[in-house]
From TrEMBL:
Assembly description: The complex comprises the extracytoplasmic solute receptor protein and the two transmembrane proteins.
GO MF annotation list: transmembrane transporter activity
Pfam families (alphabetical): DctQ
Ranges annotated as spanning the membrane: 21-41, 53-70, 91-116, 136-156
Keywords assigned by UniProt, alphabetized: Cell inner membrane, Cell membrane, Membrane, Transmembrane, Transmembrane helix, Transport
One GO term describing the cellular component: plasma membrane
Protein name per its UniProtKB record: TRAP transporter small permease protein
């Protein structure tokens, strides 16, 4: 599996690192939202900047968490047929789904949001609320960035699926049926 498995591992590391960072973003979001509630109901005050910060963090967690969710197989899926499939069948579904649906969607999102994001950067768009945070242009940049990271993770998924298909095809028929051990583990051991 020369180039496929190492490439998938590198892209997986990127998604794992992003997932760790997003965990900290989530903690910060919870703490900031708690501060907003405490200010509002405890001290009869408020802060638009804090509310904007919660919104920015929520956008970052949502948009950048897409690739991590794909990496951990946490996306919603209709498992009526998929869970009953063999590893080879799942690899085929993942490969075709990535090529036909995921990667074209990522390209569409990047191309569709590029002008919108560039226009926001051109004017350094800021919050329209008095006392709000500047940097709406940074928030809007998350749209193409999330599609890029999701596409990269899709490429990692495609590499793993192709590696699984090649591994299964290269085995003798009796060895291609593995009772309890997923093919992914065998692919990782072969690449290590």
């Amino acid at each position: 599996m020369p180039p496929l498995v190492p490439l998938a591992r590198q892209l997986d590391r990127l998604a794992t690192s992003a997932g760790s960072l997003l965990g900290w973003f989530t903690l910060a979001m919870v703490l900031l939202q708690s501060a907003v509630v405490l200010l509002r109901y405890g001290f009869d005050g408020g802060s638009v900047a804090l509310q904007d910060a919660v919104l920015y963090l929520h956008g970052a967690v949502l948009m950048l968490g897409l690739a991590y969710a794909l990496h951990t197989d946490a996306h919603v899926r209709v498992d009526v047929f998929y869970r009953r499939m063999s590893h080879r069948g799942r690899a085929w579904v993942n490969a075709v789904g990535t090529l036909v649906f995921l990667l074209p969607l990522c390209v569409f999102i990047i191309l569709g949001s590029w002008h919108f994001t560039a226009a926001s950067w051109a004017v350094r768009e800021a919050s329209s609320s008095a006392g709000g945070l500047p940097g709406i242009f940074l928030l809007k940049s998350l749209i193409p960035l999330s599609a890029l990271t999701l596409g990269l993770q899709g490429i990692a998924q495609l590499c793993r699926s192709l590696a699984e298909l090649m591994l299964v095809e290269s085995r003798p028929p009796a060895a291609s049926v593995v009772a309890e051990e997923p093919v992914t583990k065998a692919v990782e051991e072969a690449g290590a």
